[in-house]
Design goal:
2 copies of one chain form a homodimer. Chain A has 2 domains: 12-73, Ribosomal Protein L25, Chain P (Beta Barrel), CATH 2.40.240; 83-234, 3-Layer(aba) Sandwich (Alpha/beta knot). Helices cover 26% and strands 26% of the residues of chain A. Chain A is elongated, with a radius of gyration of 20 Å. In chain A, β4 (52-60) and β5 (65-73) form a beta hairpin. Chain A has 237 residues and is of the alpha/beta class. The first copy, chain A, has helices at 26-34, 94-104, 125-141, 176-179, 198-206, 223-234, and strands at 12-14, 21-24, 42-46, 52-60, 65-73, 83-88, 109-114, 149-155, 164-168, 186-190, 210-212. In chain A, α2 (94-104) packs parallel to α3. Chains A and B meet through α2 and α6 of A and α2 and α6 of B.
């Protein structure tokens, strides 16, 4: 469904901050060479915090690139309030796929969770960094101005949220389409491979969370977040 | 979100047809041994055509197993009319992930498509068989009584459909939640990595298809079908 070629300034570059002159690091410089960018070309720069602008390449050699700031872009494709995915830890490389798809689908944060039935109870610093890198790549590819934060795991009971939390739960009667409220931040929560326990779900609903359906079939833990975020995106946000 | 342990007869076995006595092949027999199934245990058998029943193991040795048919199960988790995913061919192993998730999300058929911007224009017989095997596995794991058919690629213009076809299209204004009609079969169509061409979309809508949104962001070709099928599942079917 995607297209990588865009309007003028189609290539997007992540910078630490939008400023009059921006110097790029070696990784981004290599990327510009791969894209056959030349001095004078227009790019898009974004800071990962929701700011995006046009920029012109003023210097480009083997190891160094400088950009001059152009006009600021507004109306980028962000949700009305921040969208958080609170996802139980998963085995293997499944979290990478979830983070990638969740970024395309508009999340601002991924909060990893330790739950009762988790196969995995911790995640190494390197793996967490890799997930952040994947979020940054996916943000760039889907032309988002926000790079989602991937936050280290906390126990489910320590999770707090602003606005409304929706928990995907087999057998729930409520539909996200009827319950979704964009007047405040939104958090969706999905469980581990073995599912959340009844006690975990009861604890969340006692704190105001709403259980929502994902249909009558059993979904894998890595399919549920994409399906639920897809349902939210299909509502137009 | 899933749980593999179920009620009595939780293990599910695919059989060619439901009959009074059913003999299993070596692959299923090995599987029963892995699951530590014993003579006298209750299983669930399904034929991949929507029929499912309980069965008792009457014979089980190293290479052979026989089951005796018990009561038929009804009310399995199928959509009101058949749901078809018409998906453009994708590179590498991406189709496998799409078929797996689409099966969990309730599709009855996956029709592969050759489109203008496809990176891939054909698929080997072996790869097609592998996709069918993945559909069968995923059907079993998500306790579906229907194994989706994976159908060899046809050119987009040769695609026909019953009922309504919804095509995921960046920039579309219509939401699937407002357009979805379950009084007849439903087909959803997603494009290749480079997207469908304007001509392809125009050709589909001229034939009655409806373009639907998946939100304001650009999705990868392998995320779009899961997101759109997730949106349909989140509507409760």
């Amino acid at each position: 469904m995607s297209t990588r070629t865009g309007p003028a300034g189609g290539h997007r570059v992540l910078v630490p901050a939008l400023s009059a002159t921006m110097t790029l690091g070696p990784r981004e410089v290599r990327h510009l060479h791969v894209l056959r960018v030349q001095v004078g070309d227009m790019l898009r720069v974004f800071d990962g915090q929701g700011h995006e602008a046009l920029a012109v390449v003023t210097v480009l050699d083997d190891t160094r690139a400088e950009l001059a700031l152009g006009s600021t872009l507004v109306g980028v494709a962000e949700t009305p309030h921040p969208l958080t995915l609170a996802a139980a830890l998963l085995k293997g490389d499944k979290l990478a796929e979830v983070v990638r798809a969740a970024t395309e689908l508009g999340v601002a944060r991924v909060q990893l969770l330790i739950t009762a039935r988790a196969d995995v109870r911790e995640i190494g610093a390197q793996k967490l960094q890799r997930l952040s890198r994947i979020a940054a790549e996916a943000a760039k590819q889907s032309r988002r101005a926000v790079v989602p934060l991937v936050m280290e795991p906390i126990p489910l009971h320590a999770l707090t949220w602003e606005g409304q939390l929706y928990v995907a739960q087999p057998g729930a009667a409520t539909r996200i389409v009827d319950a979704l409220d964009w007047t405040a931040p939104v958090t969706i929560l999905t469980g581990p491979e073995g599912g959340l326990t009844d006690e975990e779900v009861a604890g969340l609903t006692a704190r105001g969370a709403q259980a929502v359906t994902l249909g009558p079939r059993i979904l894998r833990a890595e399919t549920a977040p994409v399906a639920l975020l897809g349902a939210i995106a299909a509502l137009g946000r």
